[in-house]
């Protein structure tokens, strides 16, 4: 059962459980840390009210302020108006109190992580900026527009309730294949689960071994080909690569039976086979991102166990193979929740992409939820057109059996890291059999794949690995175009068991990791040959132009 905005049961249950834990922690006797926290809180409250009263209800010196980068209270009225300044500071003090109570609670690390996450959700939701009566900017606009802004906001809320999600961008401004996902190419192969795109060469000479990209199946692939200036696909083509890319189908009820093994066989393995057949090469170089990297690693372990050596190198972009520290997504995973999913969709059915999309939004609620609640519904403004947010809102469903198996064996039981504990495609899987060179990229502020978790890949694969840590987060850290040369990345630390020791010995390099990866790939790409102008071959002829029809299927 979900709300009109597709809030998953896991979120609601976690919120309620954490509320009970918070009450227990706040009232627990004999907690010195808790007593100190409360004493500090009351001292600050007294200072706040004393200053306000001494000023006669006019502007007084702030006792507490929002953290740097917090955009909720940027309006002048939050500081210049005595009432709203008092309201803002009271909220911030209460937020600090709740956070401190969480940190003083005697819970194991997993439970404290859950409590910390859901407390943050509660704190964010209770911001005075989120309510008409306590947001000065909203009140001012309502008065100036004579209530028209509030009327417009209610209309937008009604539209979003019908849509089942909060609008975060002007979706009418974009169309896949028209102004996003525009790199030239053709779909040269398809099966019920995926299409394989071959992109047109952009150089006269290309590496003899092609590049195969396996993107996540929980998002559309075109984050890798959003616009020409930040397209990883285009960059690879410009660097003399023959690029093949898997475009996953957005599954409906007819694919409700699909399993994890199907994603290996019909996805990564089929793509490798076709890329080899079309290119005529002896091997391919493979790239996997996020769960696409997990699928790729699983497929490679199966292939290596079967004696197949058709992959020359593997690149894992923000990928988890060891789920010991799953980050904030781990707060939604427990035995009760996984068993519930297995009972409802584990033998057939679909996990709606809208629910998964909401979960990802909660990881950055003050960026992806509350600004749009305020802008859309309280101010009556339409969200601006932004290609990245258009992609973010383009949800993808998952087959129930595949999703339930993934939750249990990866997030809950962390089985993939253990040699031969899992059997995939009737083959015991050992990541140590992945003995080709591996490029492992993590990003420092990743809230989906914590960089220390991604680092553990270097200790699991059997081949020589190159670990690189990019600046920024899960998306911006990966899509960091070489042409703009922004941000930085770290390389060169000692690749032992400790991620912290690696970071301590690593060197920070300015610019995009794309160039570093390009140099690393040269040793595995083979000789240069003339680029083929014809896409596909006699067996795998072009079916339709890129980006193909699978990526255009919207989750309803």
Description:
The chain has helices spanning 9-27, 32-54, 77-80, 82-104, 109-125, 136-144, 148-163, 232-238, 260-279, 291-305, 335-345, 353-362, 365-368, 370-378, 387-393, 400-412, 451-455, 457-460, 499-505, 513-521, and strands at residues 185-190, 194-199, 205-207, 211-214, 243-248, 284-289, 311-317, 350-351, 398-399, 423-424, 427-428, 438-443, 465-470, 488-491, 507-510, 528-530, 544-545. By secondary structure, it is an alpha/beta fold. It folds into 2 domains: 9-142, no CATH class; 185-330 and 398-552, Rossmann fold, CATH 3.40.50.1820. The chain has an 11-stranded mixed beta sheet, sandwiched between helices. A two-stranded antiparallel sheet has the order 3-16. The protein has a two-stranded antiparallel sheet with strand order 8-9. Helix 4 packs antiparallel against helix 5 (109-125) and helix 7 (148-163) packs across helix 14 (370-378). The two termini are 16 Å apart.
Outline:
The chain has 556 residues and is an alpha/beta fold. It has helices at residues 9-27, 32-54, 77-80, 82-104, 109-125, 136-144, 148-163, 232-238, 260-279, 291-305, 335-345, 353-362, 365-368, 370-378, 387-393, 400-412, 451-455, 457-460, 499-505, 513-521; strands spanning 185-190, 194-199, 205-207, 211-214, 243-248, 284-289, 311-317, 350-351, 398-399, 423-424, 427-428, 438-443, 465-470, 488-491, 507-510, 528-530, 544-545. The chain has 2 domains: 9-142, no CATH class; 185-330 and 398-552, Alpha/Beta hydrolase fold, catalytic domain (Rossmann fold), CATH 3.40.50.1820.
């Amino acid at each position: 059962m979900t709300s009109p905005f597709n809030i998953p049961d896991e979120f609601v249950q976690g919120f309620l459980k954490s509320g009970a834990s918070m009450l227990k922690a706040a009232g627990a006797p004999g907690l010195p840390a808790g007593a100190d926290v409360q004493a500090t809180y009351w001292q600050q409250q007294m200072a706040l009210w004393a200053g306000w009263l001494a000023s006669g209800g006019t502007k007084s010196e702030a006792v507490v302020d929002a953290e740097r980068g917090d955009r909720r209270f940027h309006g002048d009225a939050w500081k210049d108006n005595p009432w709203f300044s008092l309201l803002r500071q009271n909220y911030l003090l209460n937020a600090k109190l709740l956070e401190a109570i969480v940190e003083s609670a005697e819970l194991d690390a997993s439970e404290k992580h859950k409590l910390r996450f859901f407390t943050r959700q509660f704190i964010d939701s209770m911001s005075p900026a989120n309510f008409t009566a306590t947001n000065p900017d909203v009140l001012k606009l309502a008065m100036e527009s004579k209530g028209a802004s509030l009327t417009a906001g209610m209309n937008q809320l009604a539209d979003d309730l019908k849509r089942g999600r909060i609008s975060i961008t002007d979706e009418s401004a974009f169309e896949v294949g028209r102004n996003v996902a525009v790199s030239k190419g053709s779909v040269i192969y398809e099966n019920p689960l995926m299409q394989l795109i071959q992109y047109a060469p952009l150089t006269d000479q290309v590496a003899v071994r092609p590049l195969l990209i396996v993107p996540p199946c929980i998002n559309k692939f075109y984050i890798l080909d959003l616009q020409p200036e930040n397209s990883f696909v285009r960059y690879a083509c410009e660097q003399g690569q023959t690029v093949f890319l898997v475009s996953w189908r957005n599954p409906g009820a007819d694919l409700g039976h699909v399993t994890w093994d199907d994603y290996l066989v019909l996805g990564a393995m089929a793509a490798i086979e076709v890329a080899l057949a079309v290119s005529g090469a002896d091997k391919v170089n493979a790239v996997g991102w996020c769960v696409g990297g997990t699928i790729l690693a699983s497929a490679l372990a199966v292939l290596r166990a079967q004696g197949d050596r058709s992959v020359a190198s593997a690149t894992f972009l923000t990928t988890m193979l060891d789920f010991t520290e799953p980050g904030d997504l781990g707060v939604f995973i427990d035995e009760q929740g996984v068993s519930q999913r297995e009972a409802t969709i584990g033998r057939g059915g679909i996990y709606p992409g809208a629910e998964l999309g909401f979960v990802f939004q909660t990881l950055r609620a003050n960026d992806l939820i509350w600004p749009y609640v305020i802008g859309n519904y309280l101010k009556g403004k339409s969200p601006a057109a932004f290609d990245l947010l258009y992609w973010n809102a383009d949800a993808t469903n998952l087959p129930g059996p595949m999703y339930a198996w993934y939750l249990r064996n990866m997030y809950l039981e962390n089985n993939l890291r253990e040699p031969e504990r899992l059997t995939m495609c009737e083959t015991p899987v050992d990541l140590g059999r992945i003995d080709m060179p591996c490029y492992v990229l993590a990003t420092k502020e990743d809230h989906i794949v914590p960089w220390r978790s991604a680092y553990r890949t270097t200790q699991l694969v059997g081949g020589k690995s190159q670990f690189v840590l990019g600046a920024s987060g899960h998306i911006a850290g990966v899509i960091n175009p070489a042409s703009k040369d922004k941000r930085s990345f770290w390389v060169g630390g000692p690749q032992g068991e400790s991620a912290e020791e690696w970071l301590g010995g690593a060197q920070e390099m300015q610019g995009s990791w794309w160039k570093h990866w390009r140099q690393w790939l040269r040793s595995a790409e083979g000789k240069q040959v003339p680029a083929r102008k014809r896409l596909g071959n006699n067996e795998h002829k072009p079916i339709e132009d890129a980006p193909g029809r699978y990526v255009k299927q919207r989750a309803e």
